[in-house]
Amino acid sequence: MRPREVSPPRHGDNADSPRLLDAEQAPPVRPAAPAPSPQGDRFERRIRNDTDPYDSSDTELGVQQGQLIGGLPEGRGQGGMQLPPPVGLHRQAPQARPVALDPYLRPGDRGYDDGPEGRIMVDDFSKDSLPPLMDHELEFSIKDAHRYRCGESVRSDPKTVGNFRFRILCFPSGTQSTAGNQVSAFVEADPVEGLDPRWCFPGVKYQLTIVNWLDYRKSVTKGDTWNFSKDGIDRGWHDMVQTTDLNAGWLGPENTLYMRASCYVRSSDTLGISNYNCKEETGFIGLKNHGATCYMNGLLQSLFHVGEFRRIVYSIESEDAAEASKDAKLDDSLDDDGRAPQLIQALQNVFYKMQTADQAVNCKELMKSFGWDTVDAFTQHDAQELNRILCDRLEERMKNTPSDGSIKRLFEGEMENYIECIDVDYKSRRNETFYDIQLNIKGERGQELQNIEESLREFTTEETLEGDNAYEAEGHGKQRAKKGIRFLRFPPVLNLQLKRFHFDLEKLDMVKLNTRFEFPRKLDLSSFAPGAGKYDLYAVVVHNGDVNSGHYYAHIRPDPEGGWFKFDDETVTPCSEYAAIEDNYGGSDLAVWDYFKERPQDLRSLQPPMRPRIHNAYMLVYIKEDEARQILTPPDPKVVNPTMVERCDKEVRIAEQRRREKVEQQGKIKIKLVFERDLCKMTGFWDHEAIPHEQVLKMERGDLVKDLANELQKFLRIDQNHLALFCLAYRQTRQVRFLFMERENAFRFYIPHRSEPQFEVSDPCLVVLCVASRGYDVQTLKWQDRPEEQAEPDLLAQWNDDKVVLLVVKYFCPQTRRIVTLGSYYLSGQLSSMVGWVAERLQPYIDSKEVAPLPQDVSNYSWECWEEIQEWELQQRNLKRQVRKEGFFSGDVIIWQMMRVDAEPAEEAAQLKNQIAPVYPVVTVADLALHQVNSIDVVVMLHDTKQPLCVDGMVSNGHWGPIKLQPAVANKAADSLPAKEERPEDAALALCPAKFFPAKEKEIKMDLRWNAHHVTGTICQAFGLTPQPGEKAVWLFHAPPSSTAEEPRNNKADSQTTLKELQRSVSYFSTSPKKPLTLHAVELPFEPGGRVLAEHLAPLCVRFFDDHVREVGSEVIFVPNDGNITDVLNEARRHIQPEWGISGPLRALEVTDSRLHTICRPDHPVRGLRCFFQANIFFHCVRVEADQDLAAGQRLVEIFHCDRSSQQAFAQPLLLPLAPGEKSGSIKQRCKEKLQVPDIEFKSWRLVRSSRTGSSKVHLKDDEPWDVDPNADCRLCLEHVHPNPVNARQSRHNKPLTIKA
Fold first, then answer.
1. Which residue among the candidates 238, 551, 615, 1038 is catalytic per the annotation?
2. Closest CA to 284 of 55, 569, 93
3. Which of 369-373, 554-558, 679-683, 1142-1146 has the lowest mean pLDDT?
4. Please, what is the Cα angle at 999 between 995 and 1004, to 5 degrees?
5. Is 294 noted as a catalytic residue in this protein?
6. Pairwise CA distance, residues 430 & 843, whole Å
7. Can you tell me the distance from the alpha carbon of 983 to that of 969, in angstroms, rounded to the nearest whole number?
8. DSSP one-letter code for 1297
9. Is residue 391 annotated as part of the catalytic site, yes or no?
10. Catalytic residue among 170, 278, 294, 1181
11. Tens-digit pLDDT profile for residues 188-223
12. At a CB cut-off of 8 Å and minimum separation 6, what does 926 contact?
């Protein structure tokens, strides 16, 4: 084969020129992008003589670890969600660890200076001072580099990173494109055996370096990113070093050219293919993603390919299968009005389609059977959680059927919880079943577990109960005992969940653990349960991303003797065993690193940059080896359940028929016919959704408008020349108005390409108004022969929309505040020309008393006209101008009214109602619009100043279990308010020992134009509070004042704050008139700005807590601004009630976010309190309780409450004096007694110790001292379930996963 012809090299175009290479040598090279100029180049580092090689910015470890060579934009996750930087996949075993970069200098070598004070190392930048190779790096020495001819290549030995094998391809005398003037070097992929011929390694970051033997800082380093594949097998540069400069340090002994190359591989091999058919290539099909349902897709694939599970699902007889198949709803929409299908039936449909269909299967029917809505479809949940709930629901549905218990036999294992006394013959055992085993990635002591065996060993670790934590054996008293868990049997299909999501106490948030965790291809469980035997790995469900966003997919081996496949939503591809197993261990990979600019002494301390793998195994499925063939064999649905097959096939035929009907419907359009008499039924302001219609026609989208006119002529018996047609359209001004339809236009001309306010793509329909010529009766559409009218109808077929305007006409009656529609009117002259027509059309409404009669004394009245611009926005029009000059277009809406010439504007005529709030009269239709847009129903909750503190739904009432809510009860005091269910916060307040008045609730009509003092005055009048209070005598909040950190909304210097501004400050407020605004009010026990200001007093809310950390009362006190805590405690003591049980010395403390902020010293200034500068004194308060003396050596330690699920602090912390070395079991018992927690509730509580930074978290065992770690600044917490998790309940992202079917 003759060489390819190559164009002569052009100046400055070396990197883009192909190299001349014999076909026997290598595939064609894909040259890298041209290297940027040396200034600021991230790829090529050249140290010039005039630069400082020891610049501090170049030697910072953070700089080295914070950037990648070739820093190109990273990719995105599934569905476009933003993910952290993608992880390269370093796949050698064991895991790559930080390499100590030691140049191995020895005494006497270059680099040591034997001075008078001993050997002092000096910098030596020769090639011998380079660090040893890292795990992802290879070196290549080319001896006698001058002997190679131009175009002659040489290859290095290969290096494997993960399952990506690469080598250096070098042209010592350059490629043909460089004419032998440059040394050319490339990274060449050398695929390992067994890869699919269509292999591809995407996003590989690579780096090439030609090392200068004399000064490695002058080495030429270049890097880039490339998708290596068979068609793009190599990548590099033609212009590394000038061949004429090789003698300037580039050649070592024996004229050796020395090179290094490294690769950072983001993922294992994939298939680089297009126009891929999953069914033809693999025999399997995928599942469609309906928003964020990848977790469900991965789980369903892993269950489907368990042939025995599929057989169980097929074998279940659905109760309503026959009826369901008759009226099956197979629409793709989640919002169908049809009833949801049965769970069993929907799952059978999905599995049957996955076995027989050729395209990806739609799961919306199954999701509908779960009772899910669109929000559920876009909320990502946990795959293991769904697996457990789904199996539970299936078990429930199979009770009392022949299939009852079949899922348990497949997935259920058994373990034993035991306590065995050491010194006496007493044992306590309790057996539990499990569907999956949750394995720690990080041990209870904070250590990283390496593999499944280590995690199982920790799971079954035995604990010794002794000392204060000794076991209370019945009949034997306290005894030493061993406590633990042992497996009795493992199920045939074993599900293992790796607990990769963990709460980080330093970040105070959930994080994902990406540490390396190995799992074998074959798992021997003989040492964990008698007769357990060996298990084969069947499926690996992978999570790619972080704790907040990510993507699930699954690697499955459907045939025990076959290969692996990757199931990623709709895509199914074959993959290597490495990609399915080792690639998903997790861990970190070495990134490419240009260390050639660092000094040797710095290289010994610097660590190479690492990149975590954010894709790693989350669920593992093992199948018992001797049962694998039987369990995985796919069933024949025709043999298992012929009835189900018949039903499914019928539903497929129905679905195909409906699909064809939909295709046919795509060529048609529905026409909703509206006549002028229909417009006359409308009242109020313009609402296009309220337009009534009489008839619906179906027309071809290609039909012309005149075809519809012909149909109307036959239907109405009116000459089509006397008709004009208008369709509802969406203007650029965001108005929905009627638009004139040209008769020669097709209907598709008026069909929008996307959904608009008046048009829904899922149900396409045009609203068409048919207008007849004046002279036809508006109700009967019969021609009326009247002398005063025109003799002949207008020829509306000759409509000129540039001259004639059609207006929708309304009338407003100020007396009845009613707007009626008079019809439509076309004209080309002045608006005043239609006044007579308006009076005539108005007469039937006057006769029916819908509007008041027109005034007789017309001299004091005038006709006025307004145009409806937008909702609630009107503009007055000039009656004496031409309609076109006035800016009217066909379809505009106008409102007429008669008003007195001396009428006063509503704003100026506003009257104070009982001297509290203004009442705005409605004089014009514009006033009515303002009235309607500003009128609002406000629900006001009046709270007692002594209402207990409630933070995140938690009240210090001494009740620690779940609160039983009362059923909905109608509000007798306000009949207009609907019955409401009791809120958990209200139920918790009712259990508090503190005495206070429950909140009173009223719904009050208000106006958004009112100022704050109008609002507070109206509230005071409604609740019978202080007459004519000052503006700040009542404070307003958007939540109960003792439950929110916000400042009072009306506590501003600006007295002109309006109710509308208060409304805007509600983040969750809906503009829907159906949802009222809620304000929470509290009447202050003092008048701000009065005696408090004059006497320089500071109001503080003091909350009293008893020895059981319960709030027993509160009081607002006043202390001097320049006082101290002693003044606060003296004043607080005056308000203590005997029944509170508080005596002796007192102490004051502040709690913030359920954590102790400070314990105040007696001389602590009042101004130093955190709450001193907060306006809402009811939330930012001072906690006062009885002080206690400490014994010798004791410390007063804070113990806070921590939610087990969210790991967030909640409730009020307690202070406990602890002695050195006190056992954790004793501390837990004291906490239980102090808080009065019932035994049944406290048995699930755990005592946890964490370091000050939160980097470590340890669950303390009962026999372990609380201060065993001397280096930790002790922080103790009680970890248990939040009894009322308000935040989780309100958050859409924390919505619990449920199957409601």
1. 551
2. 569
3. 369-373
4. 160
5. yes
6. 87
7. 12
8. P
9. no
10. 294
11. 999 998 888 888 999 899 999 999 999 999 999 999
12. 866, 874, 876
